[in-house]
Automatic annotation (TrEMBL):
AAA+ ATPase domain boundaries: 52-224
Example GO molecular function: kinase activity
Organism of this sequence: Thioclava nitratireducens
One Pfam entry name: MeaB
The keyword Transferase is annotated on this UniProt entry: yes
Protein name: ATPase/protein kinase
NCBIfam families to which the protein is assigned, alphabetical: lao, PRK09435.1
Keyword annotations of the record: Kinase, Transferase
Keyword Kinase: yes
Length: 328
């Protein structure tokens, strides 16, 4: 495919050609070596352009209203003249065979909006692959001139941590809940959040939603103050994605926080740390891949692994033998 070459794709992406963007994302998702080489060249070319979007992570359990929220929030942003890209991280899709986040009926209005771009999660085997794909897709969307990149993830396992490591702001979408449900919310997740939005603050659920907001606000006040936060953050707010209430306020808080962090150096510092983190992760992954490719090393790994599995050697001792062999 000639129209997949970096030389051809780069200018088209810079000109916001959505087909070129989609093709480039397919390229970064590919497991084939020649595609990888093209993807790397393309990403490197585009990195020099220095275009930046506000990267927002959005997490929440299934049914909390993520797609309803993203559709309403996304439409509001495009209504302001902003270009919005939506990417999904759904590690569970690899197991279930089909992505819930890839459901075509989701975000129907937003997907028809010329200023929006929606890309569902691919079926990838492991979280590391999903991480790289998403991170690279974010870069491609930035190069294509998107102002806001929303990264959606289901609130399960490590996917939140992974997304938190590639965004500027992390938003948790929660459902109205009783006090004891709040106890069950993992502290680590609370600590990652910049903003907790309690959705479904409408109709019969409104009183429960308002109580939940003050419960979360109370819990957030107990957390250690982070240097990257101005007074009052992290914050909890009520929203209704369905009635499109509270969305403007949520956006105001997001932009206020991002601006404060920009003005105080935290924004760039965090991006720099994230870039370094991903660079090191790439090197680590690459080294492991190289080890797995070498038949001699693989045989040695198997042999030592067997010794560890049978209780003949201690894991750390076997690892030391392996490392010594590699280093020597
Ligand atoms: P997701 O699984 O997190 O993407 O959740 P969905 O957006 O698919 O929403 C799950 C259900 O909650 C759907 O039946 C929505 O209509 C409903 N829902 C979403 N947002 C709201 C809201 O703001 N208020 C109410 N009452 N229901 C909502």
């Amino acid at each position: 495919m000639t129209d997949q070459s970096p030389a051809d794709l780069a200018p088209r992406i810079l000109a916001s050609d959505r087909r070129a963007l989609a093709r480039a994302i397919t390229l970064v998702e590919s497991g084939r070596a020649e595609h990888r080489a093209q993807a790397v060249e393309l990403l490197d070319t585009l990195a020099g352009e220095g275009r930046q979007a506000l990267r927002i992570g959005l997490s929440g359990t299934p049914g909390v209203g993520k797609s309803t929220f993203i559709e309403a929030f996304g439409m509001m942003l495009t209504g302001k003249g902003l270009k919005v890209a939506v990417l999904a991280v759904d590690p569970s899709s690899a197991r279930s065979g089909g992505s819930i986040l890839g459901d075509k009926t989701r975000m129907e209005r937003l997907s028809r909006d010329p200023n929006a771009f929606i890309r569902p999660s691919p079926s990838q085997a492991h979280l590391g692959g999903v991480a790289r794909r998403t991170r690279e897709a974010v870069s491609l969307c930035e190069a294509a001139g998107f102002d806001v990149v929303l990264i959606e993830t289901v609130g399960v396992g490590q996917s939140e941590t992974l997304v938190a490591e590639m965004v500027d702001l992390f938003v948790l979408l929660m459902a109205p809940a009783g006090g004891d449900e709040l106890q069950g919310v993992k502290r680590g997740i609370m600590e990652m959040a910049d903003l907790i939005l309690v959705n479904k603050a409408d109709g019969d659920l409104k009183p429960a939603a308002m109580r939940t907001v003050s419960d979360y606000a109370g819990a957030l006040r107990l957390l250690r103050k982070r240097p990257q936060d101005p007074e009052g953050f992290p914050k909890a707010l009520p929203v209704s994605a369905m009635e499109e209430n509270g969305l403007e306020k949520a956006w105001e808080e997001m932009t206020a926080l991002a601006e404060w962090r920009r003005a105080n150096g935290h924004f760039d510092q965090r991006r720099a740390e994230q870039a370094r983190h991903w660079f090191e992760a790439e090197v680590r992954e690459g080294l492991l891949a190289r080890l797995r490719r070498d038949p001699e090393i693989r045989a040695k790994m198997r042999e030592l692994g067997d010794a560890v599995a049978s209780g003949e050697s201690a894991a750390s001792a076997a690892a030391a033998v392996m490392l010594e062999q590699l280093g020597g």
